[in-house]
Amino acid sequence: MGVMATAKHEAKQIGLVTLYFFVCFGIILTLKKLFLEAYEIRVYAVSAAVIGALVVAKIVVILDKVRAGTRFDARASLGFGALYKTLLYAAATFLALFAERLFHAYREGGALGTAVAYIWQHRDRNVIFADVICIGLALMAYHLYTGIDRRLGEGTLRAAIWRRAPAGPTPPSREPPPDTD
Predict the structure, then answer these.
(1) Where are the alpha helices (DSSP H) in 38-154?
(2) Burial of 166 (0-12, 13-18, 19+ CB in 10 A)
(3) Measured between alpha carbons, how far is residue 33 from residues 71, 87, 90, 97, 174 in Å?
């Protein structure tokens, strides 16, 4: 595979994942903006959604290629593999969000212990947990989708979702009716 073909494949792969997370984060941040509007708090959601989607998509694509991300893909159930990845990636998300808040609190306070205490006491932990839950739900849906797609054959699920239905009535199933005894 040539350099251009590899670059095109990577851009398509990262682009689709980024688009998915941009839509998810856009919905989450729009809801956050609507909730905070009642308290007259301004939130700028678009830039946060774009940056968050780019960062999370690249991390997900990288983690999906390392051993920690693929540990249970071949030998465990799809649900267990998706749950494992979601918990692993959500833990990484928690650490990243906590580190971001810690960095800002440390810059203002100058002491690490004071910064950690400030984050834990001033409702930042609730915001971090809410963000991790929302991102975790987006990650779970992503991992279930990619797991199903991988097991059906790469691109099969996407084609089934976006393909137009054939014209006319849907043919009846050829499977025998279930035994009701």
Answers:
(1) 45-63, 67-70, 78-109, 112-121, 124-152
(2) exposed
(3) 38, 26, 23, 19, 50
Provide the residue range defining the domain that includes 50: 10-63
pLDDT tens-digit profile of 153-162? 888 888 888 8
Residues 52 and 117 in one domain: no
Rounded to 5 degrees, φ, ψ at 177 are -60, 150
On whether both 58 and 76 belong to a single domain, the answer is: no
- The answer to whether residues 139 and 79 belong to one domain is yes
> CA 61 to CA 57: how far, in whole Å?
6
In terms of domains, do 16 and 79 share one?
A: no
Euclidean distance between CA atoms 128 and 104, whole angstroms = 14
pLDDT surpassing 70 at residue 35: yes
One-letter identity of residue 15: G
How wide is the angle at C-alpha 143 spanned by C-alphas 95 and 133, nearest 5°? 40
pLDDT in tens, 106-142: 888 788 888 888 888 876 788 888 889 999 999 999 9
Please tell me whether residues 59 and 96 are part of one structural domain: no
Q: In this model, does residue 180 exceed pLDDT 80?
A: no
